[in-house]
Amino acid sequence: MSEASPVTPSWLTPDPTWAGGGAGVTENVTVATVAPAPRPAAPELLVNPWDMVLCTSGALIACENGVVVLVIWQNAALRAPMFLLIGSLALADLLAGLGLILHFFFAYLLRSDSAQLLTVGLVVASFSASVFSLLAITIDRYLSLYYALTYNSDRTLTFTYAMLVLLWSVSLCLGLLPVTGVNCLREESTCSIVRPLTKNNVAVLSVSFLLLFGLMLQLYVQICKIVLHHAHQIALQHHFLAASPHYVTTRKGVSTLAIILGTFAACWMPFTVYSLVGDYTYPPLYTYATLVPATYNSIINPLIYAFRNQEIQRALWLVCCGCVPASVAQRARTPSDV
After folding, report:
1. 176-201 pLDDT per residue, tens
2. Are 55 and 104 in contact (CB under 8 A)?
3. Omega of the bond prior to 293 within 30 degrees of 0, cis?
4. Any idea where the G-protein coupled receptors family 1 profile domain is (predicted)?
């Protein structure tokens, strides 16, 4: 992009119809009557409402996940592999929320290409770390069931640290791509549906997401098989398969896994598919309509992975009011908490 070209205060390439009321260029027609007074042009929108929605989502994401990060950080008892992965997910979503907020303010106040690249890189790295953390949590759940007898060992903790280092390193590399030159600021024709990311960059991210989703789906299928097999064996020992409380709660746990995977797909799949088929010439409305639901996944993640966990609930009660309700303290862990 040349120095004389204006900076677009949005995630998208300039849209000539956004503020112009949709009027096109018309031919000059000579008439005998007096020409009517020219219609005043529609006022330009100072702030894109969709960008305000993204900024609001970012604020909610940052506040919600900030609570999770604070609780896990302050509680020394929450250092098991499961909580480290939940903390990684919350930290990634927290950074993603901050990235959305910073992008909004820098785009409309600073109007700098460098700031735009930095904030977009932060958002890409954070959302990548969020998706990778979800995969790591799925792997951890599978290993905790498949190797139930040897799961609580030093090897598991070492493996968890290795996964964290790997996922954050890959996410950081993906986030640095726009900053290091893989962007479309100099050549608008290479832009994707999200400026300043190139079409090839977004395609790689989308294909990677589809591969990760396929791996998560396969792992959750294996988890369901293991859980149902264990529940079936326990229920047969009691000779009451359908009426066994353990079997009922196990079915609830399998339903919970389906909800987790379904929510993840519903949030990210529209944007992923549209990223593969769309480009910068497509209407901006389609991009925002798929990008906004993708951010909602970071709002839902704490509700699924953190606030439902009994240990985190106890720690949160202690931080908020210094006590733990009896209903929370005495609640037993069930397979539905898988």
Report:
1. 998 888 888 888 888 889 888 999 99
2. yes
3. no
4. 64-305
How many C-beta neighbours within 10 Å does residue 293 have? 16
Provide the whole-model pTM.
0.81
Mean pLDDT on 292-321: 85
| pLDDT averaged over every residue in the chain | 79
Could you identify the residue written with the tokens 């990677």? 208
**Rounded distance, CA 14 to CA 1, Å?**
13
The Cα–Cα gap between 191 and 14 comes to 11
